[in-house]
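A.,

Following up on our hallway conversation. Structure tokens first:
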């Protein structure tokens, strides 16, 4: 029994690796700059928001570029993962129908690919923090891997739920694009949480994305000092979402092959 479980786990893990490699190959096929785009696009957004909010709208904030970099990269990890993973069952219909696989691997492979992009971007983030703030926090060595795990669990769980719902309601792919644009401005990404009036802050933290973004910001800009409660909130969000994902998968995955 133990050997069967081990073999199943290894086979599933190998399939996940193959799917990630396939996604990366498709993503960069015939691209001159290739992986560099995963750095250039977020950095272009950083520059755009810096000009719009710091120069044009004159938001007075110290270390605004490091602030934006700390927030934009994890946000792109969220957005790219969820938008791409939502349609993954329909896009891989032949694989789902013809091959007996653990179907949750498909949305997870999308999230894993975007996780790789985020990890590859970490040196850029560290350089910006080191030069922009002239500091290096040793606590990054603990908090960054911890947040990587928590955000991966949260995104992959949410991606699995959305992918399953999309099988039944095709409008989900349009709704998620609209929702992510709305959530962007309801999350302290281009403005600090301190600008939000105290009476509205509880509303912001009902948005699970806000907890993760503020946590990343705390890690990069303050070394996570004094914000341990934020990491606990992220832990709770990640594992509650994981539980919901498992429940949803057990109830709905059997219908995927019939409906796509």
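Then the amino acids I'd put at each of the 260 positions:
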């Amino acid at each position: 029994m133990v050997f069967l479980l081990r073999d199943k786990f290894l086979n599933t893990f190998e399939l996940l690796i193959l799917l990630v490699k396939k996604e990366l190959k498709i993503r960069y096929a015939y691209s001159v700059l290739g992986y560099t785009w995963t750095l250039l696009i977020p950095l272009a957004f950083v520059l755009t928001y810096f000009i719009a909010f710091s120069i044009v709208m004159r938001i007075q904030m110290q270390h605004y570029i490091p602030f934006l970099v700390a927030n934009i990269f994890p946000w792109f990890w969220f957005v790219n993962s969820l938008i791409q993973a939502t349609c993954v069952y329909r896009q891989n219909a032949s694989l789902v129908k013809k091959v007996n696989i653990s179907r949750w691997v498909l949305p997870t492979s999308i999230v894993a690919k975007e996780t790789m992009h985020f990890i590859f971007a970490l040196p850029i983030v560290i350089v910006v923090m080191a030069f922009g703030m002239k500091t290096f926090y040793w606590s990054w060595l603990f908090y960054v891997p911890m947040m990587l795990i928590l955000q991966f669990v949260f995104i992959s769980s949410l991606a699995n739920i959305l992918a399953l719902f999309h099988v039944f309601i095709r409008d989900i792919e349009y709704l998620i694009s609209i929702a992510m644009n709305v959530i962007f401005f309801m999350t302290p990404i281009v403005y600090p949480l301190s600008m939000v009036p105290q009476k509205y802050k509880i509303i912001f933290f009902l948005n699970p994305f806000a907890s993760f973004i503020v946590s990343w910001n705390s890690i990069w800009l303050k070394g996570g000092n004094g914000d341990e409660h934020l990491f606990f909130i992220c832990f709770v969000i990640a594992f509650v979402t994981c539980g919901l994902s498992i429940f949803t998968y057990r109830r709905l995955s059997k219908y995927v092959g019939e409906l796509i």
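Residues 2-259 form one domain. Curious whether your intuition agrees with the design.

B.
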